[in-house]
Design goal:
- The structure is a homodimer.
- By secondary structure, chain A is an alpha/beta fold.
- Chain A has two domains: 105 residues, Rossmann fold (3-Layer(aba) Sandwich); 147 residues, 3-Layer(aba) Sandwich (Rossmann fold).
- Chain A contains eleven helices and eight strands.
- In chain A, the strands form two sheets. Chain A has a four-stranded parallel β-sheet, with helices on both faces. A four-stranded parallel β-sheet of chain A has the order 6-5-7-8, sandwiched between helices.
- About 2% of the residues of chain A have low confidence.
- Chains A and B meet through helix 1, helix 4, helix 5, helix 6 and helix 9 of A and helix 1, helix 4, helix 5, helix 6 and helix 9 of B.
Chain lengths: 279, 279
Amino acid sequence: MSAESILKRTVFFISDGTAITAETLGHSLLSQFANVEFDMRIIPYVDSEETALAAVQTINRAAVDDGCRPLVFDTLVNPAIREIINTANALNLDVFEGLISKISAEIGVQPSPVVGHSHGGVDTQNYKSRIDSVHFALDNDDGARTRHYDVADIILIGVSRSGKTPTCIYLALQFGIRAANYPITEEDLDDNRLPKVLKEYKHKLFGLMISPERLVAIRQERKANSRYASFQQCQMELRAIQGIYTSEGIPWLDVSEMSVEEIATRILQVAGLKRRISG
Amino acid sequence: MSAESILKRTVFFISDGTAITAETLGHSLLSQFANVEFDMRIIPYVDSEETALAAVQTINRAAVDDGCRPLVFDTLVNPAIREIINTANALNLDVFEGLISKISAEIGVQPSPVVGHSHGGVDTQNYKSRIDSVHFALDNDDGARTRHYDVADIILIGVSRSGKTPTCIYLALQFGIRAANYPITEEDLDDNRLPKVLKEYKHKLFGLMISPERLVAIRQERKANSRYASFQQCQMELRAIQGIYTSEGIPWLDVSEMSVEEIATRILQVAGLKRRISG
């Protein structure tokens, strides 16, 4: 088979749990191969002989349909289950292979595999921190309330649709950070200064910046052909908010080319925030 | 060094991007070692000689402080950067090692490493789906509105504090699913049937169930020593809602022992929902 002929491959992520680990790693690895189209499928909760045999059937069907064998990323810890998966017509990429034994040798402790608990199950303290932070983000979204800003870890500001809300929620879910957000409106921008209510929390403020092109595209989706979504309006708002960030000395980040994960991780780093949960 | 003496180890997750991949995999691997305390630290955006040298210093300091060398998980794609990290006094666990070359041999395509883009950067369609779904979850949280239920992918129901909101938000962020949620109140339970507004969307309903012990613990955090948080009240509500799930034939899930990720992944599977984004 020549390299040119292989442009599409089916990929399976298989786990006895959510398969999030296998999927996350697989995505990273596969993104290193440009120009190949991967059809990615997740098979979670493979924790019995039956579910493993069903997975093998699914994999084999894909092999026949594609005319070439699929890639399989697995994080299975039960050897009997893995043996069944290994009978499939596929390239098996055991994510844990080698690493477990290296760690074991280094720390001098034998692994104690627990099926389906590779994500640690319910850590009560972590669970509580996450849920509390998610509710904090919801209650303090879009400037809805400002009276809890004294307990916020961070307050995101930016123009409408610059990505504040999803970033706050991701900060809460992934890191347990209590993040509020406040939209800087046209009125605020006309005054060319921070809204009064934000002044005393200036040390908690963090600005989002976005390119006018991208802001136009996002706003067009919401209100097509409106003044709100026009290039001129977007550019005006962004210039004005950039002026406020600069004159007030507020740290900010250009998020135009970033995913929500990247924005949240960068903010954590730039603002020097300490995560409240271990991940 | 004897096995007994090693109870604590410092672990670093290092990447040229967010380090989420290294961290996710590392967590899974380390959870296989019970009784060992891992102090986990993330060093994201190691993408230059300077940041790599700073990381080495941090690792070496931990080695001195701990009296034993740390574990380092990295997903670095730049060989020059990785070489610097490898000079640290640590056990280096290269997450990508071996896997990239296996995939390359199988598909007959050479990898084209792009630093800092292992998460694929901004995929505009994915970004839009996620953001739209997050806003949908927020707008349709806690029964706030019901007029958009016709475009919902799923509507979660359950008693107060059974985990509906964080699950909806996770479904949106991770899978691009449009998830609404509706709290079943005591009044609804007294009537022993579904609220009227939900009847026509019965095929989209999915119930959350939780143990009375866990519900008491969660509600105690919110309103300590209230009737709302009493065992009797929680048990009564849960029995009543279980009756509704059964009589109405609504699929449901016991989430008492699950993390938010697990709840969302299970629901996706049980309800047969198709994710709108690739992860």
